[in-house]
Structures are given as structure tokens and as C-alpha cells.
Amino acid sequence: MPPNVHVYHEAPSSLEDLLSSHMPRSLPLLRRLQFSKYRTASSPAERFILVADDDSYNAFTAAYIDVSGGPDTHMWLYSTLEDGEAYIDGDAQNHYRPQFDLLVRASIDIAKEYGKPTFYPEGVLLGSLNTRVRRVMENMGCLSSRLSGYYDKWLFKADKLGGAEGFVLPEGMKWDSPNYSDCVTAVERTDVPRTPDVLMRLPGLVIRLDDGTPISWAFIGSDGSLVSLHCEEQYRRRGLAKALATKLIKQGTGFPSQNDGWSSADVANDNLGSRAICKGLNGTVDWEVSWYISPPLLLFLCFFPTCS
């Protein structure tokens, strides 16, 4: 029997519960679902896809997609292929190929229904993609250009963060929420493809001087990851970024159902400063992720009737 495919305009509570039962591997997709549901940040073009072998949901793949998005991530997915031990044999990988095939087909249908060009002419940006899933989808021809390098997925628990208890800001500094001007500055300091408008929709925290100048900031991304963490050069090595990250992670997203305490960060292996902060927060590396542009959707539909 082929897998069953369900496409939702709004994520049902049952999908949120299903993803919650597969934490922490399902964290990016679960947080993206919750961000849409609880922060009234949904898009008319967004959809949730669930592909499962049967109603037991022992083996399934789920995704969020917003083909109207950009320049940041359009699509997140989670598959039970990600669970378990590090080694996955060929039979297990082949088991999920029909699920990924149907997921791609559903995504193409959603793009056709949208009927407008995507932000990237090449297709949609699939983000925080677990390497296990990425390898299978690459072999199937379901991915094209790689937009990023590979990143370690660091995991944090709010009740196990270390190193910033009792931290007091130096005189002349204060905690604050980011304003639009702060978000413009944050975008200028990083090459991550986000806009000030995107950052304004995210939970964030700023350390600023009494004259209003922001000197350190960070945000919680729509997938629950710590993003755009930055401290201006002249204020580094004072523990400010670490204290800010700790405070922001403990604040969390404010979602009614986020009581699991999990957060994450995607860090390149050669980003020694960010890795040091993650270690100082008692974070652990769990898996590897990357960002890919999918094949051009219309070309994919015309020339590749199946990616299997």
C-alpha cells in the first residue's frame, strides 16, 4: 500500500502532539508549527503536509511549506528516518523514498496552486535539513543547489543552561526588546538572509547602552533556534553574549504549549566563537543540518514525473 498524504491549511492539534512525541529531533518543525499557530504569524500560502505509511504513524514524514516566503527558509521537514542510531541501512532508507516522493509531489501541487514565482527562481529553500534525510533526497534527485555549508545542531535545555546565573549588567547598560532600528542593524551585521521585518516578528532581546545604542542582541527563530546572536567587538569578552543567550532561551517563545524547555542553534564547525558560547550554555551537538534549494518546481513537474 502506498503511503497516505494529508495537506492542511492549518495544522491540527494531532500533528502537534505527534511531533511532540518525537522530540528533540522534531524540534525545528514543531516550533515552526507552533510559531504559525500561536504568534498569529500564519501566511495564506502556508501548508502542512503529513505523509504516513498507516494510521499508526510509526513511520511518517511531515513538513511545513510557505511558497510565498523568502529570503529566509520556505520549508522545514521532519521524518522518523531521523530517529534512532547513527547508522541507517539501505533497506530503511528505501522505505522512506515513497514518502519523500509524495512529499515533493504535494509541494509541487501547493506551488501550482499559489501560481506566482517563488523568491528564489530555482525553487523553494528547504532549511535545517537533517543529513540522514538529505542523503536520501539527494540520491533521489529531489534536491539541487546547496545554499549553505553544513551546520551542527546544538541542543539546549532551559533548566540546564550554565554560566550566567546571577549575571548583572555593567553600569550604563540595560535589557530591552528590539525595535525596528535594532533589527536593521542586526541584518547589517550578518550574512544570513533575513529582513528586518522577519526579525521584528521573532522573540528577541537586546542589551543597549543608556543612550539607546544596541551592543548585543539575539532572536529565537521561527524554528526555535537561537539566531543572529551578536556582540559588538568593543564589548566582547565580558560575558554579555552568553548572558543574553541564557536569558533569551529561558524566556522561550511564549507559546502556551512550549513546556518542554528545548531550544537549539545551528553552528558551523569553524565558528569557534559561537561554539564556545554553545558549550558554555551546556549545549550538546546532536545532528548535522544544511540548507538546500529544491529543483525548479515547474521544471521538476515537466521533466521529472517522479523523483524516485
How would the blueprint of this fold be written?
Layout: E1 4-8, H1 13-20, H2 27-38, E2 46-52, E3 60-66, E4 75-79, H3 90-114, E5 125-130, H4 131-140, E6 151-157, E7 173-176, H5 180-188, H6 196-200, E8 204-209, E9 214-220, E10 226-231, H7 240-251, E11 262-268, H8 272-280, E12 284-293, H9 297-303
Antiparallel strand pairs: 1-2, 2-3, 3-4, 5-12, 6-11, 6-12, 7-8, 8-9, 9-10
How would you characterize the overall build of this protein?
- This protein is of the alpha+beta class.
- The chain has 2 domains: 4-151 and 289-303, Aminopeptidase; 156-287, 3-Layer(aba) Sandwich (Aminopeptidase).
- 31% of the residues lie in helices and 25% in strands.
- It is built from 9 helices and 12 strands.
- The chain has helices spanning 13-20, 27-38, 90-114, 131-140, 180-188, 196-200, 240-251, 272-280, 297-303; strands spanning 4-8, 46-52, 60-66, 75-79, 125-130, 151-157, 173-176, 204-209, 214-220, 226-231, 262-268, 284-293.
- Strands 1-2-3-4 form a 4-stranded antiparallel β-sheet, sandwiched between helices. The chain has a 4-stranded antiparallel β-sheet with strand order 5-12-6-11.
- Strand 2 and strand 3 (60-66) form a beta hairpin.
- The radius of gyration is 20 Å and the shape is globular.
- The two termini are 16 Å apart.
- The relative contact order is 0.18.
